[in-house]
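Handout for the seminar on molecular recognition.
Each group receives one record of this type.
Step one: identify the two inputs.
Step two: read the structure output and locate the region that could contact adenosine-5'-diphosphate.
Step three: write two sentences on what you found, then compare them with the reference statements printed after the record.
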Amino acid sequence: MSHNYKLGELIIEGKTKQVYELVDNPELCLLQNKDRITAGDGVKAHDLEGKAAISNATNGKVFELLNQAGIKTAFVQIAGETASVSRKCEMIPIEWVTRRLATGSFIRRHAGVPEGYRFNPPLQETFFKDDANHDPQWSEEQIISAQFKVNNLLIGKDEVDIMRHTTITVFEVLERAWATRDCALIDMKIEFGVDNKGEILVADVIDSDSWRLWPSGDKRLMKDKQVYRNLTTVTQADLETVKRNFKWIANQLDHLVPPPSSLVVILMGSPSDEEHCQKIAKHAMALGLRAQLRVSSAHKATEETLRILAEYEGSGEKVVLVAVAGRSNGLGPVLSGNTPFPVINCPPVKPDSVSQDIWSSLNVPSGLGCTTVLYPESAALAAAQIHALHDHLVWSRLRVKQLTNFVTLKKADKKLRNLNL
Ligand SMILES: Nc1ncnc2c1ncn2[C@@H]1O[C@H](COP(=O)(O)OP(=O)(O)O)[C@@H](O)[C@H]1O
Ligand SMILES: [Mg+2]
């Protein structure tokens, strides 16, 4: 990777970063991390050599995961050891916090709630970014009444709803990812910006400053910035411990974006079904699955069909089978009767014989558990839902798909509502 970005003016400098214009692309900016750690709205602050690089790596891996899951973020790419490139935004000065377990400021603000109280669904809170007044908590009504205008977008009820949903989705995606490392994501904060197209994006950074992480769900093992916040005196040895923890988190993140491994095998009874099967494969890959196409007729090549099945059973992979056969579907039921793998029938029905074509997929002998869907997208979604039980990235794609549907409907409703008929 070469990083020859020509830096323009300094747009803004905060406690831990500088933001620069990029001369060759006015839509982007460079986030330059500082070797600086701060707490208590900047009251406590130390130089910590190597912190910029660790934060940068952490942030890059987190946003890589969010981007892969399909969340709309400002992150573009890492640009060297201590910087990254982002879409240039006007920022909304609100911190969006999500909590799974009660701790920290929550239990101070809500006397009587024990530490560790579990919020289900996760609790969402908002704070106005205002160091001088210690980032006061703001209600939805306060955010809307502030009438923030960012890149020509007025932040109203719709925008708040979109950000709240997105905030919780980001938390859920990262919570599941961290769970694969036996780490409990306790709470976290994000910020949003609006780009020059008026699009709301998850922006700023997400690093060890942004969350509480408890390995094995044990508070005593915490690895995040709370360790630094808790220090009354700060020795060099303390700072080294904080840095070692941050490094540990950055290293763990390498395991959170696995290459696609969940396999869907689309078995067709005849090569004439290929087009239908390609549609299933396309949708499956968009959901983060690996897809393979095979052809074999259960009626005309029964042994070969069972041999192909044995091939996958012996592969050690996690496989969902999709059976595609027109007219009488022997394929799906034969597969289903001979394997514990899930089998989804997706017959390519003809409009004038639908009811006859689906009958063989539905009216199966006792002992068979294959399911049936009619549309290629449905087959891919059904396979993804099965894989999502063990594959957090597939789960995240499905979750973000729901978020995207929510946002699309909200935007469409806003547009229609504001039509002058
Ligand atoms: N993509 C972006 N475009 C424009 N500004 C950004 C972007 N991401 C982050 N910023 C802004 O960069 C500034 C510096 O970050 P930081 O040092 O964390 O500031 P703070 O101390 O206010 O939290 C913040 O005001 C933040 O909102
Ligand atoms: Mg900040």
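Reference statements: The mean pLDDT is 96. The chain has three domains: 7-84, 89-255, 263-390.
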